[in-house]
């Protein structure tokens, strides 16, 4: 008996989708790096993406059902993993995790831990609805 499968109609679920919730963010970020006067080589781009994805996963401890993140650039609101993904992407893009303003798109290990305790990146643009 042959069964019809709708496996190709199910959208993939993962961190990349959380970071791209509502609008593409990863591809434009890579395009921005490629357009720089001195663009990073493929190895450096990979390191930056690993930093972004890893810190985003580590911060996704669950925001609960009531927390909502408002993304100022898209004007959209996101909750749960999508909200945490978009919030962590914006923090990464702004250089929140880097200790060097000349290299904002990186995560500097334990430097990240101290500023996150007040959760300032998550409260800056949040709303409780």
Query: Nearest-angstrom radius of gyration?
Result: 16 Å
Helicity level, as a percent range?
40-55%
Largest sheet: 3 strands, antiparallel
User: Which of globular, elongated, flat, extended, rod-shaped describes the shape?
Assistant: globular
Task: Please work out how many helical segments DSSP would assign.
Answer: 6
Can you count the beta strands? 3
- Low-pLDDT segments: 124-129
Structural category is mainly alpha
Instruction: Estimate what percentage of residues fall within beta strands.
Output: 5-15%
Q: What distance lies between the first and last C-alpha atoms, to the nearest angstrom?
A: 50 Å
Outline the structure in words:
There is one protein chain. The chain is mainly α and 129 residues long. The chain has 6 helices and 3 strands, in the order αααββαααβ. The chain has a 3-stranded antiparallel sheet, covered by helices on one side. Helix 3 crosses helix 4 (80-93). The radius of gyration is 16 Å and the shape is globular. The N and C termini lie far apart (50 Å). Mean pLDDT is 80; it is low at 124-129.
């Amino acid at each position: 008996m042959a069964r019809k499968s709708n496996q190709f109609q199910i959208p993939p679920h993962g961190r990349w989708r959380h970071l791209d919730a509502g609008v593409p963010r990863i591809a434009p970020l890579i395009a921005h790096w490629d357009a720089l006067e001195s663009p990073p080589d493929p190895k450096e781009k990979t390191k930056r993406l690993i930093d972004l994805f890893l810190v985003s996963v580590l911060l996704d401890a669950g925001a609960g059902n009531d927390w909502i993140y408002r993304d100022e650039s898209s004007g959209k609101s996101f909750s749960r993993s999508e909200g945490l993904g978009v919030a962590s992407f914006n923090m990464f893009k702004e250089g929140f995790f880097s200790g060097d303003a000349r290299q904002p798109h990186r995560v500097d290990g334990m430097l990240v831990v101290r500023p996150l305790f007040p959760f300032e990146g998550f409260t800056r643009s949040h709303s409780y609805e």
